[in-house]
Amino acid sequence: MPKRVDHEHRRQQIAAAVRRIAAERGLEGVSLNEVAAEAGISKGFVQHYFASRDDMLRHAATTLRGGIEERIAAARPDGEPGVRDLLVALLPLDDAARDDALVANAFLVRALKDPEIAGHFRTGHGQLRDVVAAMLAASRDDGDLVATVDPPAEAVLLLALVSGLGDAVLLGYQTGEEAIALVDLHLSRITAAPGKAGWASSGRTVASAAETS
C-alpha cells in the first residue's frame, strides 16, 4: 500500500522552520530556499504546499499562538491557570518565550502591509482580550476586585501592559523579575482587599472563562 502522508503535519513542519528562521534573522531571512534547508526538505516539497513565500508566511502566522498556549497550560500543571499566570505567560522570560516574542514582532511588522496577517492578529488579540475580560468579570462578581473595575477596559489595559513590558524585557531595560513585579503591582491596585489577592492566580480559570466569553 502507498505510504499515507500527513499533509497537516508537513505544513506545520514548514511553519516551524519559518518561525525558527524568523526568531534568528527576522522575516527578511525567510525564503523558500532557506525554509527548505531549515526543514531538511527540498524547495519543491515546500512549493508543493505553498505556491509562494507570501502563502507560506500567511500560514505560519496562524501558528504563532502555540507556544503561548503551552506556557499558559504549564503555569499550573495541577490545575487551571488564573489571569496572572496568563499574563506572565505572555512575557519573554525564557529562551522559548523570547523566540516566540521575536517571531510575533517580526510578523507584526509584516501585518502592517498584509491584511490577512493583520486579521490573524486582530482575531487572536480579540479572543485573548475576551478571555481576560471574562475572568475579571467573574472575579469582580465574586467580590475579589474593586467594584469600579470595567472588565473589558481592564483587559485591554492588562494586555497593553504586558505587551509593553515584553518589549522592555526583549530590549534589556527591564528584567523578567521586574516585569512580573510590575504586573503584580497593577493587579494589587484592582484587588478589593489584600487578603483576596489569590483571585489572580487561582480564581476564575482560563478554561471556565472561555466557556462564558
From TrEMBL:
Alphabetized SUPFAM superfamilies for the sequence: Homeodomain-like (SSF46689), Tetracyclin repressor-like, C-terminal domain (SSF48498)
Pfam family, one: TetR_N
Taxonomy, superkingdom: Bacteria
Record-annotated DNA-binding residue ranges: 31-50
Native source species: Amycolatopsis speibonae
Name of the protein this chain belongs to: TetR/AcrR family transcriptional regulator
Keywords: DNA-binding, Repressor, Transcription, Transcription regulation
Domain HTH tetR-type as annotated: residue spans: 8-68
